Amino acid sequence: MDIFHKTEALLKEIGEAVIPSSEVLELFRIRFLGTKNVLKDVFAEMKNIPSDRKKEFGQLINSVKLAAEERYASEKDKFESTVSSSTEQLDLTLPGDVITVGARHPIQLVRNRIIEIFKRLGFAVEENREIEDDWHNFTALNMPEDHPARDMQDTFFVNFNPDIVLRTHTSSVQVRVMENQKPPIRILSPGRVYRNETISARSHCFFHQIEGLYIDEKVSFADLLQTLDFFAKEFFGKDIKIKVRPSYFPFTEPSAEVDVTCFICAGKGCNVCKYSGWVEILGCGMVDPKVLENCNIDSKKYSGFAFGMGVERITMLKYQIKDIRLLSENDTRFLEQFKSAM
Ligand code: DAH
C-alpha cells in the first residue's frame, strides 16, 4: 500500500472508530493528536513524495488532522454532557470519605501536662537555644574544663569548636535566665537536648528535658520537696509518694534523685519498677551558691532549688513504652494510640 492509501486509511479509521467511553477517547486522542501521533510518521514521508504530488499529499494529511480534531471535540462534548446530565451515576448511599484526625505526640502530651501543673504554682515557661556555648552548658554550672562530671554527658561539638556544643541538658537555661532576670525567679524550661550516645531501646542521641528553677529569699529544701510531692500527686495520682535519695550534681548542693511509687503496681513490685516498688523520675537539689554567683545573683541574700527530668523517661513509664526509638520514628500506627490520651 503506498503512503497515499495508508493516509486515506487513517481518515477512514477516524470516521469509523468506535468510542464507547472517555478512556477509549483518550486512546484516540493519543493516537491521532498526542505528541507522538501517527500523523508525524506520515508527515516524515513527505521527502519521498515526488514534488508534483507534494501539495496533494500535504492537503491529505491536513484533512486527516482536521477530521481527528473534529471527531475528538464532538466525542468529548458527548462524554462531558453525559456526566453532568446523569444523576444515576451519583450513589448517595456510598459512605463518605473518612477524615482522619491527628493526635498529639505523647512527648507533647506529657510536656503540656507537666507545664500545666507547674503553672499553677506560678512557674513561667522559658525556652532557650539548643546550640550553646561552653559557659552556659558547663562552666557556669560548676563544671569547669576537666571537671569529671563533663564525662557523664557525652557532648556533640559544633564544627569541632570546643566552645560551641549542642546543649547536653536544659540546665543551661537556668544560667541564661539568672543572668537576665532578677529574683524572684520561677521558671520551667522544656526543650530538646543532645548526647553522643549509641541509639538503643533505652537511650537516644536526642531527647527532651524539663528544667525547673526557683530563686528567692529563704527558699529551702523543704520547699523543693513540697513542690515535687505536689507535682508527683498531680501527675501520677494522689496515692503516689515520693522518695528522695542523696545524689551528686555539680550545680546543686545538696543534690538528690527522686523516685515515685511505681504507679503500675502501686508499689507492690512489677517488671516496670524491677520489683522495687519505686521508679526514678528526676534529679534535683539546692542551687549551688557558686552557680548563683556565676550568674551575678547574691548568694547571701538568695537561695533556690532546681530540678531536671527526662520527658521520654516519664512518657515511657506512664504509657509503658518499651523502646525510646518509637518516640522519634513517627510511625502513625504507634502515634494513633494517643488520640484519646490525657
Ligand atoms: N541536668 C541534669 C541532667 O541532665 C538533671 C538535673 C539534675 C537538673 C539536678 C537539675 C538538677 O536542675 O538540680 O542529668
Strand order, largest beta sheet: 1-5-6-10-9-8-7
Distance between the termini: 80 Å
Q: What's the total number of strands?
A: 10
CATH architecture of the largest domain: 2-Layer Sandwich
Number of H/I helices: 11
Bound small molecules, deduplicated: 3,4-dihydroxyphenylalanine
Under CATH, the homologous superfamily of the largest domain reads: Bira Bifunctional Protein, Domain 2
The major β-sheet equals: 7 strands, mixed
Order of helices and strands: HHHHHEEHEEHEEHEEEHEHH
- The radius of gyration is 37 Å
| Overall mean pLDDT | 92
Level of helix content?
25-40%
Sheet/helix structural class: alpha+beta
What's the CATH C level of the largest domain?
Alpha Beta
Q: Domains counted in the coordinates: how many?
A: 2
The amount of beta strand, in percent, is: 15-25%
Description:
The protein is of the alpha+beta class and 342 residues long. It has eleven helices and ten strands. The strands form two sheets. It has a seven-stranded mixed β-sheet, with helices on both faces. α1 packs parallel to α4 and α2 runs antiparallel to α4 (54-85). The longest helix is centred in the N-terminal third of the chain and has 32 residues, at 54-85. The protein is elongated. The structure holds 3,4-dihydroxyphenylalanine.
